[in-house]
Write a structure and sequence with these properties.
By secondary structure, the protein is α+β, with helices and mostly antiparallel strands. It contains 16 helices and 14 strands. A hairpin with a 5-residue loop joins β3 and β4. The two termini are 31 Å apart. About 3% of the residues have low confidence.
């Protein structure tokens, strides 16, 4: 085990039911860890998503490094796993600790529990295990029949990958999947063809469009350096250049046929229980001649449904939607939220699959990963077991 990890919930307020919950995770094979509260800011700025970025608490070390109070625990647990001798091997972890996010309607410091599972290749089975453990979590606090929402980011990614679009537009659509207003604007912009209106720096972007990528990247990097820009919001000059060049590619002449937009909108309208959704998605794939392209993601969805049923989860209770996502950019597959609709609708337990995150954090080969977070303060209102 890496020296950064403690084996207790350091910093967690005493909460008997939360401690009992962690004990149940440990009995299920999830070793308890406690990553440091102070974390490098860059991974959160680059990977978490806009909602988390704007609510982070940032500070700067004497040497100039940008740090933050951890806004969640998935990235810290992932980083410590990669720095440990277990990196690349199957390993399961649990945690209970404080996280820090600006919130207009609550304390900026609150208690979060959760689990993370790395290196398992039984994707459908481990996805189902997360939802089952999430439901056991709400039952532990006395909520026996919560609402369950699920989705699958991989299905949308597979659909977009199969379309005849420029790579920059494919990246943009997938990135905006969790931002419904932005996604709608993207589709409208594509139907109109390229840019809708003249964006800032249109002349520079037009000159760069279609140019040699390496040369264009070097030019933009040099211009930023000459302007005295070294980093903005934790992003390096190279990363800023990448984003600028992506705008150039998005501004190139690209037009999406209206029937393709209709296909995307038909896909995003599919909702129901997971079995019903799978059948509708098979029909859509057949109608669009995309059965082969969507088959792996659909096979995984149907396999996951089987494992959920095997864990005695009634699929009729599960609300699946192809448009459902979460506010973290690193999710790549199955996502879920467990809520109490009689209260605020805020998630009590939420998580999913993030197979691409560990590579983006420095892993040399892809490592499967799935997990969830638990909002202890929201569950504390129920009268479950102590």
């Amino acid at each position: 085990m890496n020296g950064n990890w403690a084996t207790s919930g350091t910093g967690a307020a005493s909460d008997p039911r939360a401690e009992a919950l962690l004990a149940s995770y440990e009995r299920a094979g999830y070793v308890r860890v406690a990553p440091p509260i102070l974390q490098p800011a860059e991974p959160f700025l680059d990977l978490s998503g806009e909602d988390i970025r704007r609510r982070m608490f940032l500070t700067t070390a004497p040497g100039g490094a940008e740090l933050c109070l951890r806004p969640d625990l998935t990235i810290p647990v992932s980083r410590d796993y990669l720095a440990s001798p277990l990196a690349g091997k199957p390993a399961n972890f649990s945690y209970l600790g404080r996280v820090f996010r600006h919130r207009a309607d609550g304390n900026a410091e609150f208690l979060q529990a959760g689990i993370e599972s790395f290196g398992r290749h039984d994707t459908a089975a481990s996805d189902a295990e997360m939802l089952a453990l999430g439901l056991e979590t709400t039952a532990h606090f006395g909520l026996a029949s919560p609402a369950i929402r699920t989705g699958d980011v991989a299905l949308f990614a597979a659909l977009i990958a199969a379309l005849d679009l420029a790579p920059a537009w494919k990246r943009r659509l997938i990135k905006d999947f969790n931002r419904k207003e932005n996604l709608a604007q993207d589709l409208e912009r594509l139907v109109l063809g390229g840019t809708n209106g003249r964006p800032k720096y249109q002349g520079v972007l037009a000159a760069l469009a279609g140019s040699d990528p390496k040369g264009a990247h070097a030019l933009v990097t040099d211009l930023l350096s000459i302007a005295g820009i070294s980093a903005v919001g934790g992003r390096s000059v190279a990363e800023i250049a990448d984003r600028f060049l992506e705008q150039s590619a998005l501004g190139a002449s690209t037009k999406l046929p209206r029937d393709v937009r209709g296909l995307i909108e038909r896909f995003l309208a599919i909702a129901g229980d997971p079995d019903e959704a799978a059948a509708e998605l098979r029909a859509l794939a057949a109608d669009a001649n995309l059965s082969g392209e969507l088959a792996p993601a659909l096979d995984l969805l149907e396999s996951r449904n089987g494992f959920l049923a095997a864990r005695d989860i009634d699929l009729k209770r599960v609300a699946f939607s192809t448009a459902f996502g979460r506010g973290f950019d690193y999710y790549t597959g199955f996502v879920f939220e467990i809520t109490d609709p009689s209260r605020t609708g805020d998630p009590l337990v939420a998580g999913g699959r993030y197979d691409g995150l560990l590579t983006r954090l420095g892993a040399t080969t892809p490592i499967p990963a799935v997990g969830f977070a638990v909002w202890i303060e929201r569950l504390a209102v129920y009268g479950g077991a102590a």
